[in-house]
Amino acid sequence: xxxxxxxxxxxxxxxxxxxxxxxxxxxxxxxxxxxxxxxxxxxxxxxxxxxxxxxxxxxxxxxxxxxxxxxxxxxxxxxxxxx
Length: 83
What we know:
The chain is mainly alpha-helical and 83 residues long. The protein is 53% helix and 10% strand. The chain has 2 helices and 2 strands; from the N terminus they run H-E-E-H. It has a two-stranded antiparallel ribbon with strand order 1-2. The longest helix has 23 residues, at 60-82. The protein starts with 5 loop residues before the first helix and ends with a helix.
């Protein structure tokens, strides 16, 4: 990676995260995709406490599922580039 600098890599990662955020906000407006991602954040095991003046949400099951999916994705990408 001689031509890449650490700053450029961080900018690329930041732009990728921003693009993912925009996609997640807009996904409900795209016909057909809203139902594909409707499970995100609503799995059994996600902790949601709502009181009169207080609400707490901790998506523990969603975090585990996303971690497994991303781990598998990064493993496959790494395996592909090692060949």
